Amino acid sequence: MPRSTYTERQILRLQSLLYHQKKTKVYATVFAAAGELNGNGNNDLQGQTFLDNLIVSIRAGSGGDGCAAFHREKFVPFGPPSGGNGGRGGDVYILPTPHLTTLSSISKKIHGNSGGNGKGTWQNGKNGEPLVIRVPLGTIVREIPRGDSRRSKDEWEAEEESLEGMNSDDRLKKMRDNRWVHYPQFGESNITRDSFKDAEKALYRQERERRLARRQRELEAPIYLDFDKDMEWSRPVDAPLGARHRETLGHLVASGGTGGLGNPHFLSQLNRAPKFATRGQPGERITLALELKILSDVGFVGMPNAGKSTLLRALTGGRAKSEVASYAFTTLNPVVGIVRVAADGTFEGGVKEGQVAGSMLVRSRGTKPLSGMRPCASTLTAGGYHFDLAETFRFTIADNPGLISDSSENVGLGHSFLRSMERSLALAYIVDLSSPAPWDELLVLREELEKYQPGMSRKARIVIANKADLLGGDGDDAAVAEAKAKLRRLEEFVAEKLVTGEGRLLDVVPVSAKFSQNLTRVVGLMKTYVQEARDRLLVQRPKELDVLQPRPLLDAPW
Ligand SMILES: Nc1nc2c(ncn2[C@@H]2O[C@H](COP(=O)(O)OP(=O)(O)OP(=O)(O)O)[C@@H](O)[C@H]2O)c(=O)[nH]1
Ligand SMILES: [Mg+2]
């Protein structure tokens, strides 16, 4: 559909929708869709839209500072050192959750909770609470390696940056300030004492070891998590009776800094009254790339209004809540639904012949479905059993927003959802058979897929000719013949112009999503595509299916 064909009403609807979202940037997208801007629709909808790529800088909580204090009591003039240790900084975890579908709720900078400072009378600081970053299931988490410009500085590099341009005395002073707490007015004298110098040396040595260990860890086991499944968790078997049931925090990605040591720690034969304590260590800083792969088995590819969402609803028995309306761009983000298939080929939500209001409507309006269409049989509660017992196979379908000419160049709703299509095992074209030239739609769709990623259109296996109920007029022979001729023309066009990756012809199936006509056939075909694609995946990349296996960084696993 060329851009100029959007009606004023459709554009108004988009504009009012976006006005309510108060996202000015989005207007660029709207006007691009309306043909008023060219090409550069900005699709950063700031939390409103589907976000599938994000770089997050994470800083775990810093440890609390140790305290330099002495016990004071009546008649005890020189009490022992009594400064408490600082609390540990809060760790940062990452946890997959099925309740999220986009990365847009995750902030780009995440700071863990700091530990509390130690206090006098041996009071240790409180540990920082752990922080859990929730990401949608299907997220891949990768650590950005050193040398990559997107990576933010680690704790040592950040310190070095803050010291830039200082002379060596100032540097030393600042570094000491970052590491030590002195008893009031003893700062100057402390640094001249041997016990302090020894402690300082030991501290730097530990720091070097930590830094080395970190580098080694980054090289040998960079963080790579592939959240395909919800995390399983169970209570330890030895948990005491009545212990609280704690949910899993997920995967530790950045450890909080250790708390500083109070001055009692530095008590020795030579120094009976240590007047210094250490500060808490900064929390680990890492940069992660989050990538959301909507890994659906079948991805819908179609122009706006072709009936993709209606079809998804029909195939999932209405469980997939994809919005349906008669204007373009109803679906703004990909929606994934599950199709459950029984051994006899029926699927959950399929409707029994004569039961659905739609098929009666078809008749009452006098329009007849094309010959070759069969109503689906319902197995939802057929014979008194629930579908759970009947299900033998299931697959997922992603209903994507409408693709228009130049979507691959970020026009319209852009190409963020083209990534979802890219990650589907098989693609299904949905065209509106009642439109004057459905074959033209197919060409645009194929071209957009190819422009986005050459070779991608070869994943398409089926052309679903929707809205077939609108053809055939009042059931008179001439109208039915005309409808059949149109379908034949579409089939010929597909046979001539489109092939799958294996050089096979695409299936062409007329359906009516609205009235659930001929959907069992569609489900049967999709099941075969999915089985084939899954088998291929198992043969080619058995490791790809491993969950949570740390693997070396790859540029793109797809
Ligand atoms: N008569 C008839 N109308 C249909 C059929 N399928 C969908 N429609 C209608 O077509 C319109 C668009 O349907 P949607 O499912 O929202 O279309 P879509 O492809 O998801 O559209 P976008 O989300 O905007 O890309 C709605 O008014 C549906 O009721 C069908 O099989 N027959
Ligand atoms: Mg839709």
Sum this structure up briefly:
The longest helix is centred in the middle third of the chain and has 27 residues, at 194-220.
Describe the structure in your own words.
- The protein is α/β, with parallel strands linked by helices.
- The chain folds into 2 domains: 53-236 and 246-292, GTP1/OBG domain (Spo0b-associated Gtp-binding Protein, Chain: A); 294-540, P-loop containing nucleotide triphosphate hydrolases (Rossmann fold), CATH 3.40.50.300.
- Helix content is 28%, strand content 16%.
- The protein is built from 13 helices and 16 strands.
- It has helices at 8-21, 26-33, 155-163, 168-179, 187-190, 194-220, 308-315, 357-364, 387-390, 416-422, 438-452, 477-497, 519-540; strands at 53-59, 92-97, 109-111, 131-136, 139-143, 180-182, 224-226, 251-254, 276-278, 285-292, 298-302, 335-342, 391-399, 426-432, 460-466, 507-510.
- A 6-stranded mixed sheet has the order 12-13-11-14-15-16, with helices on both faces. It has a 5-stranded mixed sheet with strand order 3-1-10-5-7, with no helix packed on it.
- Helix 11 (438-452) links the parallel strand 14 and strand 15 (460-466).
- Helix 1 (8-21) runs antiparallel to helix 2 (26-33).
- The chain starts with 7 loop residues before the first helix and ends in an 18-residue tail after the last helix.
- The model is unreliable at 20-48, 352-384 and 541-558 (pLDDT under 50).
